[in-house]
């Protein structure tokens, strides 16, 4: 019965979102159409400028569609036994490039003896990327993004902390609402997607934020009783 209830709720959420998504995608489409029309009689310089706007708006429509699809699919994701640290390392080049462009730094504090988990790797990458991008977007060029892993009790925790602008108290409860954004170029779907990914992994997300100081997102996964592999660094520790 509980399951049915959740499914019905989810359906209506997707229905509501389908309504807003038409609106969200019509905006960039209208901008693109308008600029294409204007392009007919313009100089190369102006064209260049328009070109960039058109590309940005098309990319925006594309991200909305992609994020929305990931969110609406909600299929039972195929999970495999893997290590969070491997996923983080695979994302590193992308994250460092992004941080470099912004003049920001990234710090990794990966814990010892973090056990493996059953994860959907593609979704886990989406989750970490979305969280890290949000962190970077909240910081100026002196900012530091910290990605940390810990085992705490029966949870494996992933901390993604930034030294950015922080989140006002009254916005905290709206963060995970689809289409809630405070950015001119945001889709507002990033955190909604993160939440649905974490829920599919039986995890939770906590947020702590202080305005002007920064924000930390804490993602907790239950220790996986089906994974009996040695904790990652145990063999290394034994040989030292
Ligand atoms: P988007 O990034 O497209 O705006 P998200 O769902 O990823 O959408 O985030 C929703 C909103 O939550 C953001 O617009 C921003 O106001 C707030 N937010 C999310 N992460 C952070 C963060 N690390 N620091 C400050 N604000 C944040
Ligand atoms: Mg985002």
Automatic annotation (TrEMBL):
Histidine kinase domain location: 20-225
Protein's recorded name: histidine kinase
């Amino acid at each position: 019965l509980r399951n049915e209830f959740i499914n019905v709720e989810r359906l209506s959420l997707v229905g509501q979102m389908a309504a807003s998504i038409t609106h969200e995608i019509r905006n960039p489409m209208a901008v693109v159409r308008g600029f294409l029309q204007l392009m007919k009689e313009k100089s190369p310089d102006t064209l260049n400028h328009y070109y960039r706007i058109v590309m940005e708006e098309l990319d925006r429509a594309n991200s909305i569609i992609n994020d929305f699809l990931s969110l609406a699919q909600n299929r039972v994701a195929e999970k495999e036994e893997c290590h969070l640290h491997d996923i983080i390392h695979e994302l590193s080049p992308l994250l460092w490039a992004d941080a470099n462009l912004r003049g920001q730094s990234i710090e990794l504090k990966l814990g010892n003896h973090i056990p493996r988990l059953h994860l959907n790797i593609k979704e886990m990458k989406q989750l970490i990327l979305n969280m890290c991008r949000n962190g970077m977007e909240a910081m100026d060029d002196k900012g530091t993004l910290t990605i940390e892993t810990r085992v705490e009790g029966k949870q494996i925790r992933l901390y993604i902390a930034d030294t950015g602008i922080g989140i006002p108290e009254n916005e905290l409860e709206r963060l995970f609402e689809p289409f809630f954004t405070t950015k001119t170029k945001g889709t507002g779907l990033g955190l909604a997607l993160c939440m649905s990914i974490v829920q599919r992994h039986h995890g939770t997300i906590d947020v702590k934020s202080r305005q002007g100081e920064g924000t930390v997102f804490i993602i907790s996964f239950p220790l996986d009783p089906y994974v009996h592999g040695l904790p990652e660094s145990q063999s290394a520790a034994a040989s030292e």
